[in-house]
Specification:
It is built from five helices and no strands. By secondary structure, the chain is mainly alpha-helical. It folds into two domains: 40 residues; 47 residues, no CATH class. The longest helix has 24 residues. The radius of gyration is 23 Å and the shape is elongated.
């Protein structure tokens, strides 16, 4: 039983490494690879997530400041889109 579980673990490990190499062009996979290999600490991932969350919050706040007034007074999306000529 230990041999079978060990073989399965080795196969899954191989598949994980293969996927990381295959999709290494993706920034998330590349970051995961660097962390997995010990070239970067895991805190880099959490710092990146925090940065992205802050950026998204800033975008939402700016969007709310500059949104079309018609969209904030309860008009439907079709009516709003007609007002700005996108339908």
């Amino acid at each position: 039983m230990k041999t079978r579980a060990g073989a399965r673990a080795v196969e899954q490990s191989y598949n994980l490494v293969d996927a990381i190499e295959r999709f290494g062009y993706d920034a998330d996979c590349a970051l995961f690879d660097l962390i997995l290999r010990g070239e970067l600490c895991e805190e880099v991932y959490y710092a990146e997530e925090k940065l992205i969350d802050g950026f998204e919050a800033a975008l939402v706040a700016e969007d709310r400041k500059h949104s079309v007034r018609a969209a904030t007074v309860g008009l439907g999306s079709v009516t709003c889109c007609r007002e700005v000529n996108c339908v």
